[in-house]
């Protein structure tokens, strides 16, 4: 089966898996330290036929590598979905997106997100908050200027989203959150809230369960049995479970074969409803696995 899409609330279509994130293992603290291995990997990803979905952010400091790969690629711009995020390295999203567009050498991104409702670096008074409403208005300006096709948020809880929905003239289409079988609500009620308001959830770190050391429990035996049934590996089963929960998986790999496999194999299998529900149930019974934004969200484990 070919690549699938989710339909956003505004009618636009988004490729239903982001096969290459440039954060996590590719994250850098210094933009000027060029990682040619990353550029090579993105270049190979851009050779995969059809639309490919890439994930970027200001704070990953990987625009130079992504820009170099895009420059060398012959793939038409409309076959590349670029998600980017404002992480508050620049003061506001207008400056930040102008910077990333110039580094990436493109005229627009497909989706621009507020990376989190917090400032990673504390304000002078020690707080981590900032003016979300003012910032959202700037994102809307970026849509009107044609610099991004869609806008959204990341790591937002229900209350933060409510603030945005109240004032939005252009609605958030996406909330990219940490989501895996062992963390089905990054913050209380976020899954149901997003469904109700037609905000597409994206799952970053969807494969976190595989990083657990003790894999002797029923969850792992069950996922492994499904991998055998569908002639694949546990990673693909977990990505497919995310997709069948109506959530868009955002994954990455240093191994090109895995990127290729995530892009193809996930569309060749279909879990039954019973299998999806059983993964959800066994996952919920397992201890929470949360890797990011822990100082803010560990309280919800
Ligand atoms: N908005 C936010 O705050 C955040 C966004 N993100 C975004 O999400 C992206 C993905 O996050 P990440 O946590 O890396 O995602 P995953 O949960 O998909 O983890 C990727 C890891 O899993 C391994 N892997 C990949 N495929 C398989 C497979 N089939 N079987 C077993 N292991 C596999 C890879 O290792 P190997 O290299 O050895 O294949 C890699 O180390 C980031 O790059 C970033 O773009 C991430 C964190 C926070």
From TrEMBL:
<feature type="binding site">
    <location>
        <position position="115"/>
    </location>
    <ligand>
        <name>substrate</name>
    </ligand>
</feature>
<keyword id="KW-0521">NADP</keyword>
<dbReference type="GO" id="GO:0016616">
    <property type="term" value="F:oxidoreductase activity, acting on the CH-OH group of donors, NAD or NADP as acceptor"/>
</dbReference>
<dbReference type="InterPro" id="IPR044494">
    <property type="entry name" value="AKR3C2/3"/>
</dbReference>
<keyword id="KW-0560">Oxidoreductase</keyword>
<dbReference type="InterPro" id="IPR023210">
    <property type="entry name" value="NADP_OxRdtase_dom"/>
</dbReference>
<feature type="domain" description="NADP-dependent oxidoreductase">
    <location>
        <begin position="21"/>
        <end position="282"/>
    </location>
</feature>
<dbReference type="GO" id="GO:0016652">
    <property type="term" value="F:oxidoreductase activity, acting on NAD(P)H as acceptor"/>
</dbReference>
<protein>
    <recommendedName>
        <fullName>NADP-dependent oxidoreductase domain-containing protein</fullName>
    </recommendedName>
</protein>
<dbReference type="InterPro" id="IPR020471">
    <property type="entry name" value="AKR"/>
</dbReference>
<dbReference type="InterPro" id="IPR018170">
    <property type="entry name" value="Aldo/ket_reductase_CS"/>
</dbReference>
<dbReference type="Pfam" id="PF00248">
    <property type="entry name" value="Aldo_ket_red"/>
</dbReference>
<dbReference type="InterPro" id="IPR036812">
    <property type="entry name" value="NAD(P)_OxRdtase_dom_sf"/>
</dbReference>
<comment type="similarity">
    <text>Belongs to the aldo/keto reductase family.</text>
</comment>
<feature type="active site" description="Proton donor">
    <location>
        <position position="60"/>
    </location>
</feature>
<feature type="site" description="Lowers pKa of active site Tyr">
    <location>
        <position position="85"/>
    </location>
</feature>
């Amino acid at each position: 089966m070919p690549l699938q899409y989710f339909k956003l609330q505004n009618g636009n279509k988004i490729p239903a898996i982001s096969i290459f994130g440039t954060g996590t293992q590719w994250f850098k603290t210094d933009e000027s330290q060029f990682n040619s291995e990353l550029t090579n990997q993105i270049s190979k990803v851009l050779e995969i036929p059809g639309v490919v979905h890439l994930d970027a952010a200001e704070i990953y400091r990987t625009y130079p590598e992504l820009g170099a790969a895009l420059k060398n690629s012959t793939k038409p711009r409309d076959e590349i979905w670029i998600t980017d995020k404002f992480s508050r390295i620049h003061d506001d999203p207008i400056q930040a997106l102008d910077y990333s567009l110039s580094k990436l050498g493109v005229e627009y991104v497909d989706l621009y997100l507020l990376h989190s409702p917090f400032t990673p670096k504390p304000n002078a008074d020690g707080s981590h908050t900032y003016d979300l409403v003012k910032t959202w208005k700037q994102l809307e300006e970026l849509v009107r200027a044609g610099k991004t096709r869609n806008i959204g948020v990341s790591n937002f809880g229900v209350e933060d989203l409510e603030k945005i929905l109240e004032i939005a003239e252009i609605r958030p289409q996406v909330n990219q959150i940490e989501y895996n079988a062992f963390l089905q609500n990054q913050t209380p009620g976020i899954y149901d809230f997003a469904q109700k308001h037609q905000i597409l959830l994206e799952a970053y770190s969807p494969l976190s369960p595989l990083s657990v050391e003790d894999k002797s429990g029923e969850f792992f035996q069950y996922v492994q049995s499904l991998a055998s049934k569908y002639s694949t590996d546990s990673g693909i089963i977990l990505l497919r479970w995310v997709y069948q929960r109506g959530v868009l998986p955002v994954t990455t790999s240093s191994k090109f074969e895995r990127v290729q496999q995530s892009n193809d194999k996930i569309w060749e299998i279909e879990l039954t409803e019973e299998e999806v529900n059983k993964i959800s149930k066994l996952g919920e019974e397992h201890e929470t696995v949360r890797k990011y934004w822990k100082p803010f969200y560990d309280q919800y484990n």
